[in-house]
Amino acid sequence: xxxxxxxxxxxxxxxxxxxxxxxxxxxxxxxxxxxxxxxxxxxxxxxxxxxxxxxxxxxxxxxxxxxxxxxxxxxxxxxxxxxxxxxxxxxxxxxxxxxxxxxxxxxxxxxxxxxxxxxxxxxxxxxxxxxxxxxxxxxxxxxxxxxxxxxxxxxxxxxxxxxxxxxxxxxxxxxxxxx
Length: 179
What we know:
By secondary structure, the protein is an alpha+beta fold.
């Protein structure tokens, strides 16, 4: 192997310049093919983009079954005063306080408390009064003419109500009286 000579040589030592053996026709064919490939790729991408736009326009009106509503996207209660969805529940519905002063929450709650303090509150379903002002409660109690128990039996119940279980009896019997 080492003794064989390469006789093929593209270099002509008698010429003062190197001969150009690049095939110009192949370079032109490659360039034209590359340009055609780029144009075809752009056309296919443009067609794909139009198909995707049409599909997006058709699906724009419908939301997916797992899509969250605007209320579900809010952070959980209690929210900070500057957080989206911050507000106060009232008998008239939710009062939105997102862009109001921090004192607005206190003022709204104070209005609600004043209404309950003056007029009391009723259960929406049953209509039963769940709270009322002290003065109204006293008047209503006095109107009912409640009879107080008296006699031996009432005194025994009063004495038993003052007894309580101690550790000395291991919780078995009421031994000591409340003072």
